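In the design runs reported in the main text, the only information available to the sequence generator was the tokenized backbone. The following block is the verbatim input for one such run; it is reproduced so that readers can re-run the procedure and compare outputs position by position.
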């Protein structure tokens, strides 16, 4: 994996879903990350369409990525396909949540 994508993922791992109290990387909410020169394009989802923290999480994603030196702009696309399931979570997240 590209070093810059790994740096972006590390920054995204600091974004916490307040409802589940885990980061969005371990929850499997990030579907795709692309870096085109200095513009980062991210596709992500939420556990449910009615996620009460959706707006704050998306704002925190953009802030986390745009503070990276080599990123000038973060475009965030919310996607609902494929539907998020608990199987997308990392082993750490499943153990933490007991699923």
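Verbatim output:
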């Amino acid at each position: 994996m590209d070093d810059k994508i790994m740096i972006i993922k590390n920054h995204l791992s600091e974004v916490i879903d307040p409802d589940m109290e885990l980061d969005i990387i371990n929850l499997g909410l990030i579907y795709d990350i692309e870096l085109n020169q200095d513009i980062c394009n991210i596709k992500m989802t939420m556990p449910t369409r009615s996620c009460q923290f959706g707006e704050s999480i998306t704002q925190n994603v953009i802030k986390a990525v745009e503070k990276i030196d080599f990123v000038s702009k973060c475009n965030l696309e919310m996607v609902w396909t494929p539907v998020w399931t608990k199987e997308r979570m990392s082993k750490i997240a499943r153990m933490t949540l007991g699923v």
